[in-house]
Amino acid sequence: MTAFAHYARALGGIVGREVLRFVHQRERFLSALVRPLLWLFVFAAGFRAALGIAITPPYETYIPYEVYIVPGLAGMVQLFNGMQSSLSMVYDREMGSMRMLLVSPLPRWFLLTAKLLAGTAVSILQVYAFLAVAWLYGVQAPPLGYLTVLPALVVSGLMLGALGMLLSSAIRQLENFAGVMNFVIFPTFFLSTALYPLWKMQEAGELLHFLCTVNPFSQAVELIRFALYREVNLPALGWTLLALAVFLGGAVYGYNPAQGFLARKTGGE
Amino acid sequence: MGTPALSIEGLSYAYGRGAFALKDVSLAVGAGSFTALLGPNGAGKTTLFALVTRLFESPGGTIRIGGVDLRREPARALGRMGVVFQQPTLDLDLTVRQNLLYFAALHGIPRRTAEARARESLERLGIAERIGETVRALNGGHRRRVELARALLHEPALLVLDEPTVGLDVPARRAIVEHVHALCRERGIAVLWATHLIDEIGDGDRVVVIHRGRVRAAGPVTEVNRATGADSLTESFTRLTAKEAA
Questions:
Q1: Do B105 and A10 touch (CB under 8 A)?
Q2: Contact A23/B at CB under 8 A
Q3: Which segment of A89-93, A162-166, A235-239, A246-250 scores lowest on mean pLDDT?
Q4: Angle, CA of A250, A256 and A261, to the nearest 5°
Q5: Which residues in chain A have their CB less than 8 angstroms from residue B101's CB?
């Protein structure tokens, strides 16, 4: 058996397991879909009158608020999924199946990356389901955009998954995770370009504008927004990749056996 | 004796800056040997397991699996070892087959080989007919058997089990204990079996008594009894673990 075949089989196994688990957890899929749809149907509809969107790239005309918010909600789906996968890692570790993964005869960085890819695959399924409903609702991007958005979703999904993984490496118990969800998910989502364009934030204040700009989630959302309209936003791509490298590096460090993070968390006799 | 399936030399470990959970532990498990790691709760058994399975690493001491240094070549060393953890590690919503095939994939075993081995392994444990059921539908004893079958899929030379009978009823416990002994006899697999239950250890087994992070006695049960001047392992164990408390 070649090393390549081993890696490929392991990757297939890890992604396959995650997708199977996802298929078995219909409630998870439903809640992943309902959350952005509520924002789209209720929040965006209500905000439509209050918030006018000027012509900003990649849009070529005036757009209703629903159109503006869809890429941000796609990002939100991935943000939640990234946090949920890491929640399942904390849970897995407590339940033991994370241990099973970590004692496999493969480098730990590979196992973590494979796990990340698996979570990203699931998040992409969720995003496409959301985009399909949005399309039926009337928010339609150019047809080719649904293809060009795929690589953007891979990069953003990996970055947000890596953030979750980094958090999971530092969290001791499930209970602590709820706090992190509040302190990470909400600020990450609200201090981004998901709901309002950057220039709107500038009107609100320099600090908010600055925080929105440096938030990696903003970059991921802009990457998705441009890709959905068949454009590449290179700065957003660069920043998202950089954030991915930093978060993944941190997660691999956190799960390194010599670091003893796991030891401190698992306690033991 | 040839290269031991597992050899540990001078292993120490402390959590953070706390007291040592393990101090200068050395032991060896030879091919075909059933070695019980016997210690009261809190003796350091689980820490030793976490180190042997590389969940975490200790800067002090060495662990070799079939002669391969776990720190230098972790993938090669881990590939030679089957593990059954104390906590259940199966996916409850997946079927027995899906659980086994997932594990086989992690070990790079081709699908067809994995299917054949899974069936064979489950047959030996008497639960082949449950292969298509979700793990949630199985009782505790059967779940443990599935974990045992899974740990053997890649045909390891060494099997390590951390209190694998926790929470099982008497017949289920006996079945697992007997099956693992048979694996040693018939297939020459080396076993390290952590327990605090003396009745799981036979007279022909080897035992390593661990207490407060240190090895107190090691060798065949009869020799340990002779060295402590006891008539039974229960008595030896009481003497070895009482000394420290006194």
A1: yes
A2: no
A3: A89-93
A4: 85
A5: 13
Quick: pLDDT tens for A70-100: 999 999 999 998 888 777 777 766 567 778 8
**pLDDT tens digits along B195-234:** 988 989 988 899 999 999 999 999 999 999 999 998 999 9
Distance from CA of B134 to the nearest CA of A (A): 11
- Search chain A and give the residue with CA nearest B74: A105
* Residue A1 exposed, middle or buried by CB count within 10 Å (0-12, 13-18, 19+): exposed
Structural domains of chain B ordered from first start: 1-80+158-246 (3.40.50.300), 90-155 (1.20.1580.10)
Task: Say if the Cβ atoms of A258 and B56 lie within 8 Å.
Answer: yes
- Strands (E) across B49-189 are located at 60-65, 68-69, 81-84, 158-162
- Supply the pLDDT for residue B12: 92
> What is the distance in angstroms between the Cα of B199 and the nearest Cα belonging to chain A?
22
Q: Do A103 and B78 touch (CB under 8 A)?
A: yes
Beta carbons of B15 and A263 less than 8 Å apart: yes
Residue A182 lies in a domain: yes
Q: Distance (Å) from the C-alpha of residue B104 to the closest C-alpha of chain A?
A: 8
Number of domains observed in the structure of chain A: 1
Q: Round to whole Å and give the CA distance between B157 and B190.
A: 6
Please report whether residue A206 resides in a domain. Answer: yes
- B105-148 tens-digit pLDDT: 999 999 999 999 999 999 988 899 999 999 999 998 999 999 99
CA of B108, closest CA in chain A: separation in Å?
Answer: 4
The residue to which tokens 């396959």 are assigned = A16
